[in-house]
Amino acid sequence: MMILAIDIGGSSVKSAIYDGALQGKQQFDSPLTWLTMAEKLDALISNYRQEYEIERIAFSVPGVPNKTTGWLEGASSLHYLHDVPFIEYFQKKHQLPVTFENDANCACQAEMALGQGKSAKNIVFLVIGTGIGGVTVLDGEIRSGQHYYGGEYGMMLVDGRHEWSILGSAVHMARKYSQGKDRDFSGQEVFALAEAGDQLAQSLCHDLYRYLALGLYNLQYIIDPELFILGGGITQHPELLENIEKALTEIMSYGQRCPLRPNIKLATFKNDANLIGAALTKIN
């Protein structure tokens, strides 16, 4: 079965055909309005259909997909997605079955089926991008909680005031670095500047690693998973895990009785996890 998988993120929209492996990958920047987003997605879907026999369109989306109404609830940086009958629009427009699933759930499904989580039963999966989302897996089942907000780890106020989605995001780190500069810098550029000796970049990177480690430490004692899996664009940074581990060692030396050190691994599929997981989502 050929499935068109589309991953809608706060910064970009990725797509590919999945039939056991990904092919025909494409990407464009996330538009600022629903009208532009719909136009771009409609053109994208039509172009794929000229080349592939697509049997289903599978979306990975931010927020909380309501499988009954077909609307996207909750909140995300793409606020306009929550104001339209999402599933109905694409089903009527393209006359194909359409599914949608939360982006973190998609990535987690990919890792549980084919990646780092294949043999684990109790997992915290984190997607670190423009913000931080996640999934809690207990006894092999995704647990979303009473109000379906379980796993919205980015809402934690890890310093008592600011959300983890801001303090632990390379996107927001780059925005801080760009303040007062003559152009906007990306997270990867700030990482490179830190390695080159830029003191501001080094300070911001140090804070980023520390806040990521602090959140992981807290979650270890709240949920007690056997494994943390980190996904999202930040995992492309080759020194991410090493620096989180260093920050974690510092945090665990503060004097508390803390015998449990989080077991952290990077997602196998990195930026492809959402696409694969979307394709693996079953029709409701």
TrEMBL record:
Superkingdom field: Bacteria
Any coiled-coil regions, as ranges: none
InterPro entries registered for this protein in UniProt: ATPase_NBD (IPR043129), ROK (IPR000600)
Similarity field: Belongs to the ROK (NagC/XylR) family.
Protein name: N-acetylmannosamine kinase
